[in-house]
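Course assignment 3, question 2. Fill in each field.
Student: A.L.
Task: Predict the tertiary structure for the chain below.
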Amino acid sequence: MAATAELSVAVALTLGICTRFAALGSAALMAIAVYSLQVVKGFGWTWNTGGYEYPVFWGICSLAVALHAWQAWFAARKTAAHPVTRLSAAE
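Answer field:
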């Protein structure tokens, strides 16, 4: 189940399909990965002790992508709802 979720999120992010939701899903998957590492190995931040800095990094990156995608979506909705009419210089 985890492999299917990770593969589908990776494909969606790579191809730009439902980016807002795929990035949130990716962040959730990374949060689960960090929790799983914490339960199995205990606290260990560095890579040589089996730490979880790498999933934390990708979780933060996924949140940044999700935030940017949601901002772009809201901006596009706002522009579509309130079109600005511009007068040309000749008028």
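Instructor remarks: The longest helix spans residues 53-81. Helices lie at 2-15, 19-41, 53-81.
Grade: pending
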